[in-house]
Amino acid sequence: MPAGLILLVEDDEELRALIRRGLEEEGFAVCGVRTGAEAMQRARDEAPDAFVIDIGLPDADGRDLCQALRAQGVTAPVLFLTARDALSDRLAGFGAGGDDYITKPFALSELKARLRAVLKRVGSDGVLLGAGLALDPATLEVSCAEHSVSLTPTEFRLLGVLAAQPEKVVSRRDLVRAAWPEGAVVHDNTIDVYLARMRRKLRSIPGAPAIKTLHGVGYLLQAVSPP
Ligand code: CA
Predict the structure, then answer these.
(1) To pair with 211 at 20 to 30 A between CA atoms, which of 43, 66, 142, 143?
(2) How many CB atoms lie within 10 A of CB 203?
């Protein structure tokens, strides 16, 4: 029984072969393709458990491929490979629905560890787990134990960023980058309105973590200590 099927989208043949060997040694089954178009096709045919996607593909930007997969209802975790070290690229990767990124060149052991981590965060039914919350991208519902509440798509993306790194501070700027389209002008009071609404929704779920404000720094999702 393999540890899972990984769809590897990487146009560099040598790197693709290297990653494939490494992941197969780890017990994964690997399907390797070169282009975004092939990836879309194989994603439909094989329903992989996770994706490893190079951002620089010959026919597409890996982030656009990720968004296209998400738009088709694919919820499997996505780990981006990026040759660029720019922070904006990494964040745009999260905004595109990716779960993590790794910058080239990387050690195979690190790729394996990241892949295991994203697979662990995602339940078998494609539900993202973070900070004790389950986020279902198909229904846009967030739940904790047996209680759940519906979110709007923007609220879902905002909470997704916070839940992906619980107890870590996320700046306003990073929230905007992840939740709104590139170049969108988002006023501070708009974010405040969203956060107030999300706080209200989270408070309606017993035991759910709370969004804490660190003035002038950002926000973090913090577990509520038991009474
Ligand atoms: Ca490439």
Answers:
(1) 66
(2) 13
Ligand 1 center from residue 62 Cα (angstroms): 9
Q: Which of 86, 120, 154 is the last residue of a domain?
A: 120
pLDDT of the chain along its 227 residues, tens only? 467 899 999 999 999 999 999 999 999 999 999 999 999 999 999 989 999 999 889 998 888 888 888 777 788 889 989 876 555 555 555 656 677 788 888 899 989 988 888 887 776 566 667 778 887 766 788 888 889 999 888 888 888 888 877 788 989 988 887 777 767 788 989 999 999 999 999 999 999 999 999 998 999 998 876 55
Contact 207, 215 (CB under 8 A): no
C-alpha 85 – ligand 1 centre gap (Å): 14
Cα 11 to middle of ligand 1, angstroms: 5
| Alpha carbon separation from 65 to 78, 97, 117, 141 (Å, rounded) | 10, 10, 22, 24
Say how many Å lie between the CA of residue 56 and the centre of ligand 1: 4
Does 94 reside within a domain? Answer: yes
What are the φ/ψ torsions at residue 73 (nearest 5 degrees)? Answer: 90, 10
Residue 147 lies in a domain: yes
State which residues form the domain around 106: 5-120
Q: How many Å lie between the centroid of ligand 1 and the Cα of residue 112?
A: 19
pTM reported for the whole predicted model = 0.61
- Indicate the residue among 75, 91, 120 that finishes a domain: 120
Pair 23, 8: CB distance under 8 Å = yes
- In a domain, residue 227? The reply is no
Number of separate domains in the chain: 2
